Amino acid sequence: MLQFGIFLHSLVVGFMIFFMVVVSPTIFKALDEANSGAFLRQLFPRMFLYGLIAMLLAFLTTLNSQLNIYWIISAISSILFAINLYIITPKINYHRDEVKLGNSLSEKKFKQFHLFSVALFILQLLGSLYLLLIYYY
Question: Quick check: pTM over 0.70?
Answer without folding.
Answer: yes
